[in-house]
Amino acid sequence: MNVDYLMPYVPVAVLLGIALFLALLLPILSVSLGPKRPHFRKMQPYESGMTAVGKAQRRYPVKFYRVAVLFILFDIDIILIMPWAVALRDLGLFGLGAVMIFIAIFIIGDLWAWKKGLLEWD
Amino acid sequence: MDLNTALRELRLLDYLRLLWGDAPWVEPVLDLISIITVSTFCLLIVIFLIWLERKVIARMQDRIGPNRVGGKFGLLQTVADVLKLLTKEAITPVGADWVAYNLAPFLIVMTALLMWAVMPFAPTWIGVDLNIAVFYVLSISSVSVVCLLLAGWGSNNKYALLGAFRAVAQLVSYEVPMVLSLIVPIILARSMSLIGISEAQVLPFALLVPVSAVIFYISALAETGRTPFDLLEAESEIVAGFHVEYGGMKFGMFFLAEFISTLFMSSLFATIYLGGYRFVLGELFNPNYTTGNLAGILIFFIKTFLVYFVFIWIRATFPRIRIDQMLNFNWKFLVPWTLVLVLVVALLDRLVADSGWTVRTLAHLSSNIVIALIALGFARRRAAREKLFEEEFGVAEEIARPMILGSDGHDDHEHDHETHGQPAPAHD
User: Fold this and answer.
1) Which CATH superfamily is domain A3-115 in?
2) pTM for the complete prediction?
3) Which of B108, B136, B184, B207 would you call most buried, defined as having the most Cβ atoms within 10 angstroms of its Cβ?
4) ipTM for the complex?
5) Structural contact between residues B164 and B242, judged by C-beta atoms closer than 8 angstroms
């Protein structure tokens, strides 16, 4: 494996380390500077002043799931288009035509999802 | 290059490189210096950003804003706030998922800092010039979605959970038009490196492809969760959304990350669409003009803060939109038209690839204006149709449709466009 490809990422790794340090420093400072007086009432989750009813980790409406599925389809589309955008001029007419059909399929797909009522929020 | 030239042109890393010679430890140390500068800058600028936002918003709402701590203009107000947040008790609520709850603010600060690695502040002032910088930025900023979901899910709070769902729906939706609109400058510049994109702009891309710039700006508003897209932390509906259970410095970390990423979005806009550190006017009138480091960093920050000011301005101007409006606007308007824009720009770029800058600019600009007019025409027709419906039946179509079509919400029949004003017969 060619290590040269990874060399530009050394500063990114260093920044990762610094970010890790700073992101750890803030909560550690907060824990060591702040008071520690836990109380049953204080630790309750906020629910407009009432005692919380049941757990909050529950099932979620399916409409959020529909949006997520739609996003995944378009995200894959985008990942495939991005390298193409850089190399557009080297790919020739075939590269242009193929991706145009690909994008057209996604426009039709979006309109189809619209028509099938996938985008209705009611 | 000798030491004096390096110092005069403010090429500080080159200066140190010349000073220290060829020892093997030099390059890693230089990397460390540039990266530490970038991350320290991020943390310090936030103190100023929060002050700026409060002051500008206050002035726009005919108030005075912070004016007690730190002189007449309240410049040190944010420092006092940070100290206060640091000395608050750090608690984890009962029933919360300890790992998820404490990991979320930690991760979101890391993502906000990591994005800055590829931002060129001046021609030679950059953390690291990756050849896939745009891709890097997008992938790092996507991690924040996970953080918001962790925060909302781990808090054991219903408001937080609702806020997290809204946040995920909004952030993943608006990522699609944002990335698609970024493909347009990538096609024009034939590079994903931010320095490459800056260098490719003889004219700022905002003049070449204004539609792409506007779409990116709107998506950036939504991605950073700012008004009018702040329904993920809508105070009047779900208290504070995903961070309702957070207090003290953990809340401060969400706040910090939000401001850093907002500033990052405005500097990304300035780099990709406004030419970044380049002084375009100077280059137009004098072909030999190249932007130096000092001028570069000044111009970069002037552009960035102009864009940031518009962020604040929009916050002071627009009301919050509903979640169905937010999703409809994205999937029914932005996404299809951005796809069309990418198609047209790719085709045009192919056609006028060998022409001069004047021809390219005029071709792209006119195609953008045509697309914008067609898209706005469609939107107007749709709005007029909805208004007609509301006038005729006294109720908005999106409220009427589930009542007309029965309890399951929508039918599988073809909508008849000839009689769109008439409601379908109700089910018995």
Assistant:
1) NADH:ubiquinone/plastoquinone oxidoreductase, chain 3 (1.20.58.1610)
2) 0.86
3) B184
4) 0.87
5) yes
